[in-house]
Amino acid sequence: MSNQDLLVDVSNRVMTLTLNRPESLNAFSADMINGLVDALENAQKNPEIRAIVMFGAGRSFSAGGDVKNMGKANPQQVYEHINRLNKCILKIRETEKPIIAAVHGFAAGAGFNLALACDLIIAAEDSKFALSFSQVGLISDGGGSYFLPRIIGPHLAKQFFFTGEPVSAERLYQLGVVNRLVPAEDLKEEALMFASKLACGPGKAYGMMKKLIDHSFTATLDEILEQEAITQTLMVTTEDHVEGVSAFKEKRKPSFTGR
After folding, report:
1. CB under 8 Å to 65, separation ≥6 — which residues?
2. Could you give the CA distance from residue 29 to residue 118 in angstroms, rounded to a whole number?
3. Calpha distance 206→96 (Å, rounded)
4. CB 173 within 8 A of CB 181
């Protein structure tokens, strides 16, 4: 499942995905994006995988688009590349398991947007983020114009998109974009510890929570209330619910199986 541009590993119910083009700051390639889609599809089907962490090899998380090759592709090739990326972004949102982006160095352009598509972001304290599309006369791709305004509001999102100026992880933490800040040397360990904790949780409940929260941005309150009622009716029949109630009554830690 791994390829040269994407390293995939599964250990202790956690899948790690490492963007592996360090010589280009992990700029996206077709193999990398296709590999992410394949890995996420496998994770969705595999009940032994309960959480996912995305890393970047080398000095940064990802520079996004490969600037060195910009201007060489014709419009049809650009469209195909963006649709490939779009499929990956949708797959991240559709995968019913927690996905963590562990960001160090720089997350720029579509690399920033890839992190935004994940459910949680853990960032190194000295990392920086930039929506640098305007610096090369482009608009955002990879869903950034969808995700970011929903977190920080349209005015501030427009500022970040218009200026393309780097934004510190600390500021994004204060704005609620980044979930946790950790020392750079502790990033991998902290991200894996967080993922391991999630991997021990009620997997089906996490998947349903993810769906409901994402749908809430386009649904009415009535629709969400109805979906909650239907989903909860199904959740009370799961093994995890039975185990959670038993553990509570017996005053012990629950042992969830994700079923």
Report:
1. 27, 28, 109, 110, 141
2. 19
3. 7
4. yes
Q: Do 95 and 43 contact (CB within 8 A), yes or no?
A: yes
Nearest Cα neighbor of 98 from 118, 112, 113 is 118
pLDDT tens digits, 59-90: 999 999 876 666 567 888 889 989 999 999 99
Neighbours of 96 (CB within 10 A): 14
Here the tokens at position 246 are 């038993």
Q: Which two tokens stand for residue 210?
A: 């993810």
Task: Read off the pLDDT of residues 168-189 as tens digits, 9 standing for 90 and up.
Answer: 999 999 999 999 999 999 999 9
Compute the Cα dihedral for 217, 218, 219, 221 and give only its sign: positive
